[in-house]
Amino acid sequence: LSPTVNFALRISFYCALCLVVSALAAVACLLVNGGRTVKNMRIIKAFVKTFKYFFGLRFEVKGLENFKVEGPALIVSNHQSILDMMGLMEVLPDNCVQVGKKELMYMGSVGLIMYLGGVIFINRKSTSSAKMVMSEVAKTMVTENTKVWVYPEGTRNCTGDLLPFKKGAFHLAVQAQVPVIPVVYSSFTTFYNPKTKLFTSGKIKVEILPPIETKGLTSDDVTDLSDRCFSTMRETLFRLSGHPGEAKDSS
Ligand SMILES: CCCCCCCC/C=C\CCCCCCCC(=O)SCCNC(=O)CCNC(=O)[C@H](O)C(C)(C)COP(=O)(O)OP(=O)(O)OC[C@H]1O[C@@H](n2cnc3c(N)ncnc32)[C@H](O)[C@@H]1OP(=O)(O)O
Ligand SMILES: CCCCCCCC/C=C\CCCCCCCC(=O)OC[C@@H](O)COP(=O)(O)O
């Protein structure tokens, strides 16, 4: 099988699996919890955690104890691919919803299962409406004691480095006065590269870093907070991916 065909088959299988299993999971969610609620994430997680076996992926997780903070928190992580959903569900704490682009809602059963799980949809093309949605989330996450997971790069990036962070996640953490917990996944580049049609089995290292407090911070501190998270996460990314630093780029 040529690598291109192999890649296409494996990605198609992944999408088909997502569509079919979402439909099944949606039925389970509706029967058990009756509608849109973060409680459905437990069901979704149980289904998605089996996906890794189909693709020969292994996760090596460190720092899970850092999720054990009392009450709400903001989780930020790097975003490499549509495959990230597997890594997300591998470590997802209870009572945690993700922020996603609203286009995902229209992916058939996948959109439905995200809706049922309580995913917060934002319109990235309208900063003002996205900010409004996220300010609302800053209030509800405190009253409803939920954690929120945001990909601060705002889009997928599979280069082995981080894109500059968008500010929304950090405004959210400061407005809600909740700690920021960074999560870093090692680079996929050794086993997954859509440009070169590479998709083999592989191991992914995941590290949940210690929470960064935001009590007392104001909107003036958002840039600092974002920069701090960015540099910690970038260092961790290079360490987990086996790069000694930014100077050494495997591409
Ligand atoms: C059972 C089987 C199942 C199988 C199927 C699977 C189902 C699994 C179920 C569930 C898994 C769910 C998985 C979901 C995954 C989704 C992934 C994605 O979709 S990633 C894309 C969307 N995510 C984001 O975009 C990040 C969030 N983005 C932001 O936070 C941005 O900041 C945003 C959109 C709010 C604005 O973006 P800007 O592009 O305009 O850029 P900026 O520079 O950040 O903001 C402009 C100015 O506004 C200020 N600003 C931003 N937010 C503010 C705020 N809240 N308050 C005040 N100012 C704010 C900033 O400080 C900046 O101003 P100054 O340059 O600093 O002066
Ligand atoms: C009836 C309509 C049928 C539509 C068929 C669509 C088939 C696709 C099915 C499953 C694909 C698996 C989806 C897993 C969810 C992962 C979410 C995700 O990672 O979205 C990418 C988004 O964060 C970043 O957006 P961009 O990188 O800016 O883009």
If you had to describe this structure to a student in words, what would you say it looks like?
By secondary structure, the chain is of the alpha/beta class. The chain has one domain (3-240): Glycerol-3-phosphate (1)-acyltransferase, CATH 3.40.1130.10. 43% of the residues lie in helices and 16% in strands. The chain contains eight helices and nine strands. It has a seven-stranded mixed beta sheet with strand order 1-9-6-2-5-3-4, with helices on both faces. Strands 7-8 form a two-stranded antiparallel ribbon. A hairpin with a 4-residue loop joins β7 and β8 (198-199). α1 (3-33) runs antiparallel to α2 (40-48). The longest helix is centred in the N-terminal third of the chain and has 31 residues, at 3-33. It is globular, with a radius of gyration of 18 Å. Ligand 3VV is lined by residues 18, 21-22, 25, 44, 47-48, 79, 85, 98-101, 104, 110, 113-114, 117, 119, 122, 124, 127, 130-131, 134-135, 150-151, 154-155, 166-169, 171.
Mean of all residue-level pLDDT scores = 95
In the CATH hierarchy, what is the class? Answer: Alpha Beta
Rg computed from alpha carbons, rounded to a whole number of angstroms? 18 Å
Domain tally = 1
Low-pLDDT residue intervals, each spanning 5 or more residues: 247-251
CATH topology: Glycerol-3-phosphate (1)-acyltransferase
Could you spell the SSE succession in H and E letters?
Answer: HHHEEHEHEHEHEEEEH
How much helical structure, as a percent, in the residues? Answer: 40-55%
At CATH level 2, the architecture is 3-Layer(aba) Sandwich
Number of strands: 9
Strand order of the largest sheet: 1-9-6-2-5-3-4
Number of helices: 8
Proportion of residues in β-strands:
15-25%
- The CATH superfamily is identified as Glycerol-3-phosphate (1)-acyltransferase
Protein name: 1-acyl-sn-glycerol-3-phosphate acyltransferase
Domain Phospholipid/glycerol acyltransferase: 73-188
Family: Belongs to the 1-acyl-sn-glycerol-3-phosphate acyltransferase family.
EC number: 2.3.1.51
